[in-house]
């Protein structure tokens, strides 16, 4: 039986999960490959902690380059994370002719175009299923299953931390701070959760999926990103009264020779499938020309769900090695010659419906003044609710749902309204997707 040797860089949560799966499912994987996947070496800064593995001490090292340079190793599994040292390891592995499996969405989103070019020149496979949505096979679905479909749109809940926090606030009435603390205690959020709660982690994933969907070069810089830190329990309660849930969505739509690419809190109807995706679960919806809407859901993070995606990529590359069919599937679904520079639509030009909450003075004429300004920017109001204010307060929450409007018009109207002496503070704005 053929032996394929693997080197793992990074023995954190996911790296440990990969090693455990390769040990536990050794016979199962061999029966599907007719070959044996063997962990030849593992590199990590901490090689003393007992992680419950049967890896012998002589296969552990603190030197990642020693693993990459090992001539017997066929595939490198990069689970270091980050964009600096991981990029050095990537480039060295490619130069050595090693195939690579990674879960590093930040690296692919920021440097994928260059890394894929280098890998193609060296005849090296790069697989990155685990970089987006945990165990959900969205990369394989986009690259292979939907090969005959024109992709019209995609949307996803792709950050378990944000979804966990919003679920806690929605279902249990938790404060943002308490929900975040619970997410950290449960292992769903990092000690520094900035990348998650500010939406950047989701943007990395959207950049990758847009490229796969639309044949465009990976473009992270032009994605509009807004996190969940300004979503309040009050807004979540009002959304529920209108028949909506609030989720952090990544949205990619083909429109008029460009692609909408945006990450932001979004109100969606309670009968939409995304509304029932709770806690740390992820979900992705893809609309194809032949398939219509496809909805994929599963664990978006965690040791074994993410490790499952890594092992899937290892098996794919191993099959390529066995059959001599390397680079059988283009990295980003389209051949490099057919990749394009499709632009991302400026956020000012995006159109959608909006939820807006003002703190307005409780006196006659307020609504007409606000509606008048909205009308000046061609924004019509579909419904208005004026809520009771706190006892002794002179201002009350005024909540509006608009018809479809252009983002630029909405922003300019809000600036004018916020300058009125009848309005206190900044308005809350959440986009609505039906």
TrEMBL record:
<dbReference type="GO" id="GO:0004412">
    <property type="term" value="F:homoserine dehydrogenase activity"/>
</dbReference>
<feature type="binding site">
    <location>
        <position position="190"/>
    </location>
    <ligand>
        <name>L-homoserine</name>
    </ligand>
</feature>
<dbReference type="Pfam" id="PF00742">
    <property type="entry name" value="Homoserine_dh"/>
</dbReference>
<keyword id="KW-0791">Threonine biosynthesis</keyword>
<feature type="domain" description="Aspartate/homoserine dehydrogenase NAD-binding">
    <location>
        <begin position="10"/>
        <end position="129"/>
    </location>
</feature>
<feature type="binding site">
    <location>
        <begin position="9"/>
        <end position="16"/>
    </location>
    <ligand>
        <name>NADP(+)</name>
    </ligand>
</feature>
<comment type="pathway">
    <text>Amino-acid biosynthesis; L-methionine biosynthesis via de novo pathway; L-homoserine from L-aspartate: step 3/3.</text>
</comment>
<keyword id="KW-0486">Methionine biosynthesis</keyword>
<dbReference type="InterPro" id="IPR001342">
    <property type="entry name" value="HDH_cat"/>
</dbReference>
<feature type="active site" description="Proton donor">
    <location>
        <position position="205"/>
    </location>
</feature>
<keyword id="KW-0521">NADP</keyword>
<dbReference type="InterPro" id="IPR036291">
    <property type="entry name" value="NAD(P)-bd_dom_sf"/>
</dbReference>
<keyword id="KW-0028">Amino-acid biosynthesis</keyword>
<dbReference type="InterPro" id="IPR005106">
    <property type="entry name" value="Asp/hSer_DH_NAD-bd"/>
</dbReference>
<dbReference type="InterPro" id="IPR016204">
    <property type="entry name" value="HDH"/>
</dbReference>
<comment type="similarity">
    <text>Belongs to the homoserine dehydrogenase family.</text>
</comment>
<keyword id="KW-0560">Oxidoreductase</keyword>
<dbReference type="Pfam" id="PF01842">
    <property type="entry name" value="ACT"/>
</dbReference>
<feature type="domain" description="ACT">
    <location>
        <begin position="354"/>
        <end position="420"/>
    </location>
</feature>
<dbReference type="InterPro" id="IPR045865">
    <property type="entry name" value="ACT-like_dom_sf"/>
</dbReference>
<dbReference type="GO" id="GO:0050661">
    <property type="term" value="F:NADP binding"/>
</dbReference>
<dbReference type="Pfam" id="PF03447">
    <property type="entry name" value="NAD_binding_3"/>
</dbReference>
<protein>
    <recommendedName>
        <fullName>Homoserine dehydrogenase</fullName>
        <ecNumber>1.1.1.3</ecNumber>
    </recommendedName>
</protein>
<feature type="binding site">
    <location>
        <position position="105"/>
    </location>
    <ligand>
        <name>NADPH</name>
    </ligand>
</feature>
<comment type="pathway">
    <text>Amino-acid biosynthesis; L-threonine biosynthesis; L-threonine from L-aspartate: step 3/5.</text>
</comment>
<dbReference type="InterPro" id="IPR002912">
    <property type="entry name" value="ACT_dom"/>
</dbReference>
<dbReference type="GO" id="GO:0009088">
    <property type="term" value="P:threonine biosynthetic process"/>
</dbReference>
<dbReference type="GO" id="GO:0009086">
    <property type="term" value="P:methionine biosynthetic process"/>
</dbReference>
<feature type="domain" description="Homoserine dehydrogenase catalytic">
    <location>
        <begin position="137"/>
        <end position="315"/>
    </location>
</feature>
<dbReference type="InterPro" id="IPR019811">
    <property type="entry name" value="HDH_CS"/>
</dbReference>
């Amino acid at each position: 039986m053929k032996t394929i040797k693997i080197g793992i860089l990074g023995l954190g949560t996911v790296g440990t999960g990969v090693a455990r799966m390769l040990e536990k499912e050794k016979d199962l994987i061999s029966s599907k490959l007719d070959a044996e996947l063997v962990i030849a070496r593992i590199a990590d800064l901490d090689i003393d902690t007992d992680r419950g593995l049967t890896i012998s001490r002589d296969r552990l090292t603190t030197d990642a380059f020693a693993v990459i340079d090992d001539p017997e190793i066929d595939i490198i599994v990069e689970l270091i994370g980050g964009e600096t040292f991981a990029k050095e390891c990537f480039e060295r592995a490619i130069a050595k002719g090693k195939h690579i499996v990674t879960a590093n969405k930040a690296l692919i989103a920021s440097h994928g175009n260059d890394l894929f070019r280098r890998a193609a020149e060296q005849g090296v496979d790069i697989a990155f299923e685990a970089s987006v949505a945990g165990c959900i096979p969205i990369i394989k679905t986009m690259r292979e299953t939907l090969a005959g479909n024109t992709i019209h749109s995609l949307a996803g809940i792709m950050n378990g931390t944000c979804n966990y926090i919003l679920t806690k606030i929605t279902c249990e009435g938790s404060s943002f701070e308490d929900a975040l603390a619970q997410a950290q205690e449960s292992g769903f959020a990092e000690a520094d959760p900035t990348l998650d709660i500010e939406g950047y982690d989701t943007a990395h994933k959207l950049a990758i999926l847009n490229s796969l969907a639309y044949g465009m070069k990976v473009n992270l810089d032009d994605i509009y990103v807004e996190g969940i830190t300004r979503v309040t329990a009050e807004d979540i309660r009002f959304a529920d009264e209108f028949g909506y849930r609030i989720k952090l969505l990544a949205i990619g739509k083909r429109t008029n020779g460009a692609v909408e690419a945006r990450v932001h809190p979004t109100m969606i109807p309670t009968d939409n499938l995304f509304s029932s995706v709770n806690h740390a679960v992820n979900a992705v919806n893809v609309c194809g020309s032949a398939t219509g809407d496809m909805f994929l859901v599963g664990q978006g993070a965690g040791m074994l769900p993410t490790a499952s995606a890594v092992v899937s990529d290892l098996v794919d590359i191993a099959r390529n090695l066995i059959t001599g069919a390397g680079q059988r599937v283009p990295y980003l679904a389209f051949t490099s010659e057919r990749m394009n520079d499709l632009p991302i639509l400026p956020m000012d030009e995006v159109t959608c419906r909006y939820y807006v909450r003002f703190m307005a003075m409780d006196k006659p004429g307020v609504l007409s003044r606000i509606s008048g300004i909205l009308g000046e920017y061609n924004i019509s109001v579909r419904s208005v609710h004026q809520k009771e204010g706190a006892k002794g307060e002179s201002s009350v929450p005024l909540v509006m749902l608009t018809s479809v409007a252009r983002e630029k018009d909405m922003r300019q109207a809000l600036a004018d309204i916020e300058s009125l002496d009848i309005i206190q503070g900044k308005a809350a704005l959440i986009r609505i997707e039906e």
